[in-house]
Design brief:
The chain is mainly α. The protein has helices at residues 3-23, 30-36, 41-48, 51-73, 79-91, 96-111, 121-134, 142-162, 165-177. It comes from Actinomycetospora succinea.
Length: 179
Amino acid sequence: MSEEGSARQQELLEAAYAWVLERGWAGMSLRPLAEAIGSSPRVLLFLFGSKDGLVRALLARSRADQLAVVDAVGGGGDLAAVGGRVWAWLAAPEHRALLRLWLEGYTHSVADPGDGPWAGFAARTVADWDALFAEHQSVDDPAERALLLAVLRGALLDLLATGDAARLDAAVAAHLARL
């Protein structure tokens, strides 16, 4: 593909990503998406190969944001400190669109574990967070990391459903105090 094609592909990917962040994955159709981002379904199919190819590219773009968060909340400290930084990031209202998109992708991946565009997304997410937490344990304890991830993910789901940040902040703080 030419440099111009690559630049256009990246431009359309970013525009499509912004559109999906705002509207979510549910019912994503090429025609309205293409119209909203100043393209056509044919151009999107040419650049991404198929709708599944576009979904894969959007999932990769979303995962890049997730990995940036993993890098940002890493740093020093023990598992409880890192868990606290992760929760603070997850609970921040400005991240809700990305987290709703993550939840949709995670759910699709679990519901459709075949070889479609969602395949492996959820498992890669778990592995990314587990690797971060493993870096901050003095003794390798996969069960402790899994429990922390389950608490954070459950609290996130409840936060997205209820918006009750105070209750969930207290719940996460209680778990972190036990680490």
